[in-house]
Amino acid sequence: MSLILSIESSCDETAAAVVDSGSKVLASVVASQIAKHAVHGGVVPELAAREHLKAVIPVTESALREAGVTLKDISAVAVTQGPGLIPALLVGMNFAKGIAQANKLPLIGVNHFLAHIYGAFLDSDLSVLQQPETYPLLALVVSGGHTSLLLIDSDGSARQLGCTIDDAAGEALDKGAKLLDLGYPGGPIMQNTAENGDPERFDFPRPLTGGAGRALAPENLYNFSFSGIKTALLYHVRKAEESGERNDAQWLSDTAASFQRAVVDVLVKKTLTVLKNYPVKTVVVAGGVACNAELRRMMAERLPRRVTLRTAPPKYCTDNAAMVGGIAWHHYRKQDFSPLDIDSFARLPQIVKVPFI
Ligand code: KG4
Ligand code: ZN
Fold this sequence. Notes:
40% helix, globular, 5-stranded mixed β-sheet, 18% strand, 357 residues, alpha/beta
């Protein structure tokens, strides 16, 4: 048994967890700042940092209490190193360093992007990670900050096939919801508003999927673009304002459903394009947007039977510290510790290897 205490503060959630041996989540506590940022229509980095400062100690104490352990039982301290908002990341990083030094525990800096992928393996039998039949594994990471396809082989080598060239999928849903005056964060509200809507009533574009009679540039085969869908929504809203339809509840549901369908359709189409060209055995859909019921349904429906689809339960899709503590155990078992002077980073570095194989 090796218990890892993990801290996550990359964006607008302050989170702490205690995870046993990379799998069993003993406690996962998340304090959301959503209400604080909602009035600004998006995350304000300095405000996020100040909120992390207030929450990080009580959240960590709650996680230890919930797990029924003390710092004496902990084997290592893990923390999100990046990517994320630097002012926000620094709070968790400094806090984790303090705990590690004061308690003579090893420190493990974790890549938040890879931790999202690992969320799909929490609370499950980890032997699947060691089985060659699991690979190649294709991870679609879709969150407020990322839309990326990562191909992982059985030796742990990895390569990013594509990513968004403008907005992330979650960002598109958040901005779309803002245009529709639905509130923040947009993804879950868009899903709710779409529930009784007709996803086929309005035709939003599916950028970089080779539709609309335009040839797709080879370098964009696995890339995404969501800014065009957002602009199409802006014109759609303006038109409805002119015609007086804007206040019609059915128009709103149909718009949300059609917009969500366009975003989901692009994500599924791109995943299927990879499957055509690589002998993928497992598809992992990870990140906050992986909570989306329509995305889960369409993926399950349209992936070929030879492929195993893995998604985490929603609580491990959105930002949390359990995924950080889970992946950190693989660094721990390889004695791959971070020095106490590690720095946080804002952008996703090139990924050539994953630590969990
Ligand atoms: O992974 P996450 O919590 O934070 C980042 O690392 O970015 O993802 C947050 C994103 C937001 O854009 C939010 O709107 C989206 O995930 N999201 C959803 C749903 N729940 C959260 N998008 C669509 N449907 C949902 N149910
Ligand atoms: Zn995240």
